[in-house]
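Q: Convert this sequence to structure tokens.
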Amino acid sequence: MIFPPETVFIRSPEPLTTEIDGEVVMMDLSSSAYFNLDSIGTAIWGQLETPTRFQDLCGALHARYDAPLDIIRRDVAALLADMLTHGLVRKEVP
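A:
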């Protein structure tokens, strides 16, 4: 699923997070679930500290990494969908 470009994402405040060796580790106390983000997932998590549109997030990653924009959109959408399922991020459609 690719999200509409104007969809806004932001972190959920619930998971406890820490950074270890450049990667984010999260623990959701309500479900006792543990999550680990690699370096790219950590970059996405950093961008979501403030509300960020899907198109802006993908554009920032495209500028930072040498990958085709359509691949970035697909991979970012998959990660965000998974994070939504686990309550790690919230989304708003203006």
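The domain at 8-88 is CATH 3.90.930.60 (Outer Surface Protein A; domain 3).
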